[in-house]
Design brief:
The protein is α+β, with helices and mostly antiparallel strands. The protein is 47% helix and 13% strand. The protein is built from 18 helices and 12 strands. Strand 4 and strand 5 form a beta hairpin.
């Protein structure tokens, strides 16, 4: 079989090499050829491979509309009867929701990745910030204090578009009711006022100059000069990101070790919004089998979802494993804060580009970057999304 993943360096790459070797040892006659692909290149290369009929047997999947498109094209294997009862019980139905379409399962969740704001406790202390912001007014005040202390407030890798779009996504999570967001996944109707309000919120916040100098040309996760690298090297105080962040940051510190002062807090509340303050947004990373994959593909997914390999996954990637029996190995203070908030959240939404599919997601992401660059407005974002939806 062929296997594509997005861990090109460090402990994550080593984890997959060791895990594949262990599976091959337990399954004589099965050979898995691994290809590691940079995360920002994965979606494009995978879509090309799927459309050309040369897809890997095992490939990354994040559920939602993106996976629905693959399923509709007949490119993913139905795993409903492949997932064992033991695996389903250990991971829980909530983890499988993102990979379930019309009561059929098309992917194996391996990590839950709710988002929020990671920050440097040391830089907050230097700027005289006590506690963490719970409202947008408090976040704006923190930005001003950091600027006064000559510290870049928020790192943003807008070159890759999706990190910038996360800001709009979270404002939409606070402005829109869960019913409005869920309904839009099927209707692709974004005419509700909350969608424009989210863009206006972002424009107002952006006017405070919260982001690092040159954020429009800053990449997200590649090298010390990326947004994650700025946080890792104390060159910026905050970054809005998913729960994979501690592992990425650890790889980018000078010592290649976890950042000792890394903390986390939920996206702040927005006055007057219809969403609940404790609601979270994020993703579920997992893997699917291509439609023509052999039966061993399903065996491999059950194998890696087991407690032992989920513990190894959590440690290698510094993240939250989907297998609840493996969550005891999580010790990173920031991730423990994420996990506590996740367990108490009234509801959790998928990233909007995942929920609404590639066409709408790309329009959202591009529209947000245009707004931040001064070339667009909240109305332009909604109009672009509506146009993209009409073409589906």
């Amino acid at each position: 079989m062929t296997f594509w993943h997005n861990s090109t360096t460090g402990d994550g790459k080593a984890y997959w090499e060791a895990t594949v070797a262990a599976f091959e040892e337990e399954n004589p006659g099965v050979t898995i050829s691994i290809q590691s692909i940079q995360n920002e290149d994965m979606d494009g290369k995978l879509q090309t491979a799927l459309n050309s009929g040369d897809a890997p047997d095992i490939f990354m999947a994040r559920g939602g509309g993106k996976l629905a498109d693959v399923v509709d094209a007949g490119q993913a294997l139905d795993l409903t009867d492949v997932v064992t009862d033991e695996t389903r019980a250990a991971l829980g139905e909530a983890a499988f929701n993102a990979f379930t379409l019309e009561d059929k399962v098309y992917g194996m969740p391996l990590s839950v990745l709710p988002g929020g704001i990671y920050y440097s406790k040391d830089l907050f202390e230097q700027a005289g910030i006590t506690g963490t912001p719970t409202t947008m007014a408090e976040l704006t005040d923190a930005v001003a204090k950091l600027r006064a202390a000559d510290i870049e407030p928020i790192a943003l890798g807008a070159k890759d578009a999706w990190p910038a779009a996360h800001w709009y996504y979270f404002f939409a999570l606070r402005e829109c009711s869960p019913e409005t967001m869920a309904e839009a996944a099927t209707s692709k109707d974004f005419s509700a006022d909350c969608w424009t309000a989210a863009g206006d919120d972002l424009a107002e916040f952006s006017a405070e100059e919260p982001f690092n100098n040159g954020f429009l040309t800053t990449s997200a996760q590649q090298g010390a000069g990326s947004s994650a690298g700025l946080l890792a090297n104390h060159q910026a105080a905050m970054e809005l990101m998913g729960a994979w962040q501690p592992g990425v940051v650890a790889d980018l510190t000078p010592e290649g070790e976890p950042l000792d002062d890394l903390g986390w807090f939920p996206f702040p509340a927005v006055d007057g919004g219809e969403g609940e303050a404790g609601a979270m947004m994020g993703g579920v990373d997992g893997f699917s089998c291509s439609a023509q994959a052999p039966a061993a593909c399903g065996d491999f997914l059950n194998f890696v979802a087991g407690k032992t390999y989920q513990e190894g996954y959590a440690e290698a990637f510094q993240t939250l494993p989907a297998n609840q029996e493996a969550q005891g190995v999580v010790t990173d203070p920031a991730l423990l804060e994420v996990l506590a908030a996740y367990n108490e959240a009234p509801y959790v939404s998928l990233w909007l580009d995942t929920m609404y599919g590639a066409n709408v997601g790309n329009a959202l992401n591009t529209g947000v970057v245009n707004l931040l660059a001064g070339g667009g407005s909240a109305d332009d974002i909604v109009a672009a999304v509506a146009t993209a939806a009409s073409r589906e």
